Fold:
Amino acid sequence: MKVIPAIDLMNGQVVRLYKGDPKQKTVYNDNPVEVAKKWEANGADMLHLVDLDATLGIGSNLPIIKKILEQISIPIQVAGGLRDESIITDVSKICNRVVLGTLAFKDKPVLQKLLSNLGSQKIVISVDHIDGEIVIHGWQKQTGIKLIDAMQEFLTMGFSEFLLTNVSRDGTLQGPDLKFLSQACQLTNAHVIASGGISNMKDIQDVKQENAFGVILGKALYENKISILEAKQVA
Structure:
């Protein structure tokens, strides 16, 4: 299981939101490049960079993301507001994987084209949900689509990489949502990264038991409740 620290970017700073709410923001660092270097030095398998400004349609942290990519050698996946085919193609050239959420649900023809051009290993489908129902547009818009139905459709299309976040757990330190993670991980050929709610070592053990491909570390890492080294020993 991969141990993947998240670096959420807003206005050039490393932040964490509570349940995805921009009004409930904690700033942890003003130097994202240094944070990335720290997590790499601590043994992270991969980094998960999220452009929250792009997600919310209020700006872009792409220049900072490019700086991080220039100075980090471990794999990096980039997420947040990637809703334009040309931007996705450009970003895919400089990182290992792009994470697509809103576009994946709103424009299947473009998604299919990206799959043909980039290949399934380059694209992670972000299946963000609240109690098993998919949400898009920075978690602000409900779709009424069931999580497992959506994943099965993407698997049929040829995708295999998924980022699974229960929004109601994200940034809460209340533990991962094992119910939906278990269902998702049982789908044939689905490689699922678990995100949201991780607070301690037991949470990581629980996620591993569900056969998750990876686990995202966010608030627990930034508040020193867990270390990458400890997480790797379990993973």
